[in-house]
Amino acid sequence: MDGDEHTASVAPTGLEHPQAELERLQAEIAELREAVRARDIFMSVAAHELRNPMAPLVGRISLLQAQVDRAGDKVPPRVAQGIRQLDVILRRYVRRTITLLDISRLTSGRFALDPTEIDVSAVLARLVEDFAAHAESAGSVVAAAIEPGIVGMFDPTAIEEIAENLISNAVKYGEGKPIDVTVAREGGALRLQVRDHGPGVSADDRGRIFERFERLAGTRPANGFGLGLWVVGQLTEAMGGTIAVEAGDGGGSIFTVRIPLRTAPGGA
Question: How many Cβ atoms from other residues are within 10 Å of residue 195's Cβ?
Fold first, then answer.
């Protein structure tokens, strides 16, 4: 046998054909981009399909709630409580579908705020009241300190989403301990603060929990996809605000959102 017969065959590594490898990578990138685009389209369509049928239901239940309030003691307590609970559940469901829609728009760059002048104190007081029963089912009591009469230009849905995600997070990780919600003016800004008394967030986790698909590490399995705090951060930033998390004295976590207070054109 001559020397050539002893030469071992070597499988191509791809490096011998850089153009072919580049084309393969470009094809994979294009395929991934198309998959992401298809996902965003699906989420947007799904959110619309879930949200649209809710409008007449929300209107009808709101009408029933108003009638119950006017009737007072004439309505059996259990009926009044049932309508109130249904109202809360449905509005929470609608907010969740709106969050899904906003995730789609945020990821695609098509998100736009719809600011209007609102009494943000009243909006957040109502939301905290909605969450009272949900928190109690997890063993937590929500204590709210809300400065009345804070009026400014805000996107009402965005404000509700921010507060709902922070309170839900506190309920999830608060280990059944009290949750404190504070709303106040602070140096020309709205300050929304949510504190739990759970295990807290480590210094390492504080730097990443506002990223997409990140979840707090806990002692029990966590539900969800890690998008709640990312949505909070994105909506806060869109309104020109900031969000921070710090450890509370004696344990737990304190999430603080600050959003500039702006008035309507021609306002005070």
Answer: 21
The three-point CA angle 153-190-152 to 5° equals 20
In the block, residue with structure tokens 């949200």 = 51
How far apart CA 7 and CA 14 sit, in angstroms, is 20
Q: What share of the chain is helix, strand, coil (3-state, %, to 5)?
A: 55, 15, 30
Largest CA distance in the chain: 107
Where do you find CATH 1.10.287 in the chain?
Answer: 20-108
For residue 262, what is the DSSP state? -
Weakly modelled stretches of the chain, pLDDT under 50:
14, 213-214, 217-225
Q: Which residue has the tokens 């020397």?
A: 3
Q: What is the CATH number of domain 116-260?
A: 3.30.565.10
Burial class (CB in 10 A: 0-12, 13-18, 19+), 113: middle
**Other C-beta atoms lying within 10 Å of the C-beta of residue 131:** 22
State the DSSP code for 20. Answer: H
Interatomic CA distance for residues 166 and 255, integer angstroms: 7
Tokens found for residue 222: 């966590």
DSSP, res 264: -
Assigned CATH for 20-108: 1.10.287
Instruction: State the pLDDT at residue 125.
Output: 93
What is the pTM (predicted TM-score) of this model?
Answer: 0.63
User: Which helix (H) or strand (E) element contains residue 118?
Assistant: strand 116-119
Q: Is 263 helix (H, G, I), strand (E, B) or coil?
A: coil
Return residue ranges of the chain for CATH 3.30.565.10.
Answer: 116-260
Q: Which of 168, 264, 182, 179 is nearest to 216 (CA)?
A: 168
Question: Helix (H, G, I), strand (E, B), or coil: what is residue 210?
Answer: coil
